[in-house]
Amino acid sequence: IFNVISFIFHVITDITGKARLADFGISRRLNFQTTLRTSPAGKKCWKAKETIEEDSNSGYKRSSDIQVAGMLVYYILSRGHHPFGKGARCESNILDGKYSLEHLDDEVEKDLVEWMISDDPSKRPRVEETLVHPFFWTDDKRVEYLKKLGNMEEVQNCRQAEEELLKALEEMTVGKTFSDWGAKFPSELVQKMEGRKPYPENILGLLRFIRNMYEHYPEETRKTNLMILFPDLFEDVFKFAKERGRNPA
After folding, report:
1. Which N-terminal residues, if any, form the signal peptide (predicted)?
2. Which H or E run includes 202?
């Protein structure tokens, strides 16, 4: 039924030609004399921590699949790198929980992979949680997230924000596409929205501006693609809000 096209990448095709992901980490080899399961099989460096540990009694669970899937996600996104390295140290790094995501720049990608490859099985996401991670969100859903942030109390009070928050936001803004966000929008729109109260030239001001634009100027939103205008805004804001425990529900 299945035609194995690449054991290394765990990709197989079914009889209709559709590609499927598979994992042989807990498969067993059968010889010609018996149908009993014998020695365990699995590709080195592509097994969960708990299946490598010889004295572990935790067994192989769904969370084990999640860790291996996280390794595969990183391998794909990084174009061929393993989060736990390569060679003789790879499996010991898995056991020690030592990984590197240096080949990823996107903070949302890092957040997903880091969650999935956690060395503690209880801290890994379930399949359902993985699939609703922001990495899989559409642009429209990401905009909705930014609008929700723009309606939070700290953002509503963007003109009287605390000094500590402003300093942290300023450090995050350096070198980003949204560092001078006011110049990215049509000047007529900015003037119309600001009135007598200009928006602060920081992320709080931008988030409030976005919220108000979508709330009061729908015709302008149809002309604006925030993900193209500020390609790094969502990932940086998501990371900042998560670190501060301020992600909206």
Report:
1. none
2. none
CATH number of the domain within which 60 lies? 1.10.510.10
In a domain, 59, yes or no: yes
Q: How far apart are CA 226 and CA 193, in angstroms?
A: 17
For residue 229, tell me if it sits in a domain. Answer: yes
Whether residues 126 and 201 share a domain: the answer is no
Residue 158 has a CB neighbour count (10 Å cut-off) of 20
The total number of structural domains in the chain stands at: 3
- Rounded CA separation 66/39 (Å): 23
pTM: predicted TM-score of the whole model, two decimal places: 0.81
Q: Could you read off the pLDDT of 195-241 as tens digits, one per residue?
A: 878 999 999 999 999 999 999 999 999 999 999 999 999 999 999 99
pLDDT tens-digit map of 182-193:
999 999 999 999
- Interatomic CA distance for residues 125 and 190, integer angstroms: 42
Range of the domain at 19: 1-43
- For 67, the token pair is 């860790």
- Is 116 part of any domain? yes
Calculate the alpha carbon distances from 18 to 10, 70, 72 in Å.
14, 22, 19
Q: Nearest-CA neighbor of 72 among 57, 62, 84, 58?
A: 84
